[in-house]
Each structure stands twice: as C-alpha cells, then as structure tokens.
Amino acid sequence: MSDNLQLEKQLCFRLYSLNKLMCRLYAPVLKELALTYPQYLVMMVLWQYKTGISIKDLGIKLDLDSGTLSPLLKRMEKQALLKRNRQKKDERVVVIKLTQKGIELQKNAEHIPAKMFAVTGLTFEKLQSLNQELDQLIENITD
Amino acid sequence: MSDNLQLEKQLCFRLYSLNKLMCRLYAPVLKELALTYPQYLVMMVLWQYKTGISIKDLGIKLDLDSGTLSPLLKRMEKQALLKRNRQKKDERVVVIKLTQKGIELQKNAEHIPAKMFAVTGLTFEKLQSLNQELDQLIENITD
DNA sequence: AACAATTAGGTTGCACACAACTAATTTGCA
DNA sequence: TGCAAATTAGTTGTGTGCAACCTAATTGTT
C-alpha cells in the first residue's frame, strides 16, 4: 500500500516548512532593523539599484505582483525608507528610490548573510550545490 | 567587492521563491477539490489519522500554531470536510475528525502526487536526494 | 487623428502566518 | 486540599500573497 499522500514524502511540504523556518530565523535579526522578511528582500534589490527601479521591475526580481507590492512599498515609504515618484517620460511608471535612511540601513544589514549562513550548519560547498539544485528546480517548474 | 547582500546569492530567497512557485502549481489542481494549499496539507494529515487528531498534534505535524489553525479549521468545518469535538477526558483538547465527505475527497486527490512529481522534471533519485538534503537543513536549523 | 489594445500601478476581498493576548481546564506541588 | 503554573484553544491585529477588478497612460493600427 504505497500511500503517496503522505506529508513526509512531499517535496512541497519541505519547501513550505523550510520557508517558514527561515522567516522565523530572520525575524529577530530583522527586528533590529525594523524590517519584515519581504521588506528585507525589497531592500536587497534597492541596495543594488540605488539610482531607482520601477515597481514593475522590482516585481519581476521578486516575483511579486502589484497587489502585494503596492501596499508593502507604501508601508516602507511611511517608514521613510524609500520614495515613490512617477516617471516623467511615462506617467504610468512609478520609480522607487531609497532615501538616505534607506541607504544607510545597508551598513546595519551587512552582517546578516554571514550570520544566517552559520545558522544553516552547511559547508560553503554544500550551500553552493544546494543553491544550484534549487535553481535547476526553479527553472524546471517555471514555464 | 564581495557584496553578500545580493538576492541571487541567498538560499532563503530560493526557498521563498520555490514555495510560492509550488503554491501556484498546486492552486489549479487543488481548485478542483475546492482546497487551498494549507488546507490540502491539513487534509493529508487527516487522511492518515482517520480516527481523529487533536489540534495541538495537528499543529506539531504542520508546524502551525492555533492562531493559524483555529480559523483555518473553522473554514474547513464550514465546508463540511471535518468536525471538531471537545475531548471528554480533557475538555481543553479539541479533536478534529474527517466527515464522510472529507474521507471521500481522498479518492479525488490520489492522482496529485504523481502529477506534481512530473511537473518538477526531476528523476526519482534526484527527488529523493533533494528531500534528504532539505531534511538535513531542517534538522540543522531546528533548535 | 481616432480608437482599440496594451501596460503600469492601485484597490478590494480572502486566506494564511504569527505575535501577543485571553479564557477555560488540568496538573503539580506546597 | 488549595492554588499557582502549565496546557490547550481561541481572539485580535498586522503583514503578506494573490485573484479579480479598476483607472490612467501609452502604443499600435487604420
């Protein structure tokens, strides 16, 4: 009786659990920066695009739609981390740009990747190969 | 300039993205059963515990607390998939038990694991080893 | 130029997750 | 036995995700 409907056999359940565990691991660290986990992901993109990025492109990077990003960015603007401005050339486009406060927050975040890597208990080689396997899986299931 | 604050380098972002992708892959399949993704996970546990399981134990299996499970189970009860009953011996405990409708839904779900496995594009061996690696990671970061 | 189709972003409604708290019940220990 | 501590669910409030829909601006075609 090969019952395949078992939680323990599901790859999807492992990904679901691991994502939640990761969020919980990051939560206390990010609390010091007054960021939620998705907000931290947004900040990582913005730290790489200090000249600004459109909400559309931000959505492509993070794989999130406007229904999620619009209110999220509004909350971050309220925290004075970023500004939103309509693009002159195309009034449909809203460009997101970090404020000075948002830029300076990067200094306080720089220790996080190493800290979290340590928590995973993986060797650097293991991490690299796991990342590769997950990238392959992402590619496979992305149409 | 080894900028470690890059989205592309983060294991956590891959897990975050993969979890979302998985949910989206399951959504249309689960829609036929009128289930959401977390509800499907609950059903998988209940199909294994047809004699009933307490909300606490369900929470341990799924790694979810009462703040999530209480309203979720209430919605599922409204759909007549399950019943909640206080335990006689210990009135604090609520036991969740499938209704006939809930039990019969299993037949309609039995094709899902094979279907989703196919979508991953992984060989069975690859799936097994990935599952093992993720289990290892879960163990490492679970205190 | 005129107008349909496309594009970018926003809004609404619903379903999670989870922190923080409350209420009811049971347990354990002085 | 009496009562503080622990246990189990439930509630409230906030922040995502996402489907479905809307508005405004731009583009493409005739």
Automatic annotation (TrEMBL), chains A, B:
It holds the Pfam family Staph_reg_Sar_Rot. GO terms for molecular function: DNA binding; DNA-binding transcription factor activity. PROSITE patterns: HTH_MARR_2. Keywords: Cytoplasm, DNA-binding, Transcription, Transcription regulation. SUPFAM superfamilies: Winged helix' DNA-binding domain. One of its GO terms (cellular component) is cytoplasm. GO terms for biological process: response to stress. It is found in: Cytoplasm. Residues 8-139 form the HTH marR-type domain. This is Transcriptional regulator, MarR family. It comes from Colwellia psychrerythraea (Vibrio psychroerythus).
